Amino acid sequence: MTSRDTPAALELLPAVDVRDGQAVRLVHGESGTETGYGDPLDAALTWQRAGAEWLHLVDLDAAFGTGDNRARIGEVVRSMDIKVELSGGIRDDDSLAAALATGCTRVNLGTAALESPEWVAKVIAEHGERVAVGLDVRGTTLRGRGWTRDGGDLFETLARLDAEGCARYVVTDINKDGTLQGPNLRLLRDVCAATDRPVVASGGVSSLDDLRAIATLVPEGVEGAIVGKALYAKAFTMEEALEAVS
Ligand SMILES: O=C(O)c1ccccc1N[C@@H]1O[C@H](COP(=O)(O)O)[C@@H](O)[C@H]1O
């Protein structure tokens, strides 16, 4: 079982979400709300050049069940010198093997953790630190299948995954995601209180002050923060973000 190691600084994971081969941002994760930001490799390389140590890479078509961007995603991962957390549509042996074969540092499972608990327990046992679970919530209700279906209670699922040895959680407040309205610090605190595993925060970051606020939760177990729209909207630069949490 993984214990929570408090890192010196909050890790930042710039997000590259891929739909139809393009980097996009959504609002509340809703299909059809895409704003396009061009080539995903260009975006990823931009964050890497700016000093990011992680990339949060999402195959949105795979998450929505509208196809996949496997080939493009594989190219992006293989082009990175930094660590990559890969998400979206990893729900069975085939998609897991393809994701791990890209050389990504870890995969992030969403829907599978809600719909295929036995498979996920096996994958956690086999792959340990290479597997995180994405807990994508509205309120305290988990959402799967592109965030379109309810998938049970956050804290019941967290307890089950903890018992199975899940290494870390990526916690997304869907109501905040893509809105630039600030993170849900209460949710992050509540999750940290319920588990001793590291937590990566996702959703709502709009400013350097938001990142500083998330960084105050490092002692409670928040290890990292995913930053999406704020970077694309140029609310701050990646360099400024890294400086703010260093
Ligand atoms: O990141 C998003 O904006 C997003 C929106 C809608 C659905 C999923 C999204 N992202 C990530 O995708 C995985 C879930 O994929 P799956 O359920 O395992 O197929 C999860 O990491 C979400 O945070």
TrEMBL record:
<feature type="active site" description="Proton donor">
    <location>
        <position position="136"/>
    </location>
</feature>
<comment type="pathway">
    <text>Amino-acid biosynthesis; L-histidine biosynthesis; L-histidine from 5-phospho-alpha-D-ribose 1-diphosphate: step 4/9.</text>
</comment>
<comment type="pathway">
    <text>Amino-acid biosynthesis; L-tryptophan biosynthesis; L-tryptophan from chorismate: step 3/5.</text>
</comment>
<keyword id="KW-0368">Histidine biosynthesis</keyword>
<keyword id="KW-0963">Cytoplasm</keyword>
<comment type="similarity">
    <text>Belongs to the HisA/HisF family.</text>
</comment>
<dbReference type="GO" id="GO:0016853">
    <property type="term" value="F:isomerase activity"/>
</dbReference>
<dbReference type="InterPro" id="IPR006062">
    <property type="entry name" value="His_biosynth"/>
</dbReference>
<dbReference type="InterPro" id="IPR013785">
    <property type="entry name" value="Aldolase_TIM"/>
</dbReference>
<keyword id="KW-0028">Amino-acid biosynthesis</keyword>
<dbReference type="Pfam" id="PF00977">
    <property type="entry name" value="His_biosynth"/>
</dbReference>
<comment type="function">
    <text>Involved in both the histidine and tryptophan biosynthetic pathways.</text>
</comment>
<feature type="active site" description="Proton acceptor">
    <location>
        <position position="17"/>
    </location>
</feature>
<keyword id="KW-0413">Isomerase</keyword>
<dbReference type="InterPro" id="IPR044524">
    <property type="entry name" value="Isoase_HisA-like"/>
</dbReference>
<dbReference type="InterPro" id="IPR011060">
    <property type="entry name" value="RibuloseP-bd_barrel"/>
</dbReference>
<dbReference type="InterPro" id="IPR023016">
    <property type="entry name" value="HisA/PriA"/>
</dbReference>
<keyword id="KW-0057">Aromatic amino acid biosynthesis</keyword>
<dbReference type="InterPro" id="IPR010188">
    <property type="entry name" value="HisA/PriA_Actinobacteria"/>
</dbReference>
<protein>
    <recommendedName>
        <fullName>Phosphoribosyl isomerase A</fullName>
        <ecNumber>5.3.1.16</ecNumber>
        <ecNumber>5.3.1.24</ecNumber>
    </recommendedName>
</protein>
<keyword id="KW-0822">Tryptophan biosynthesis</keyword>
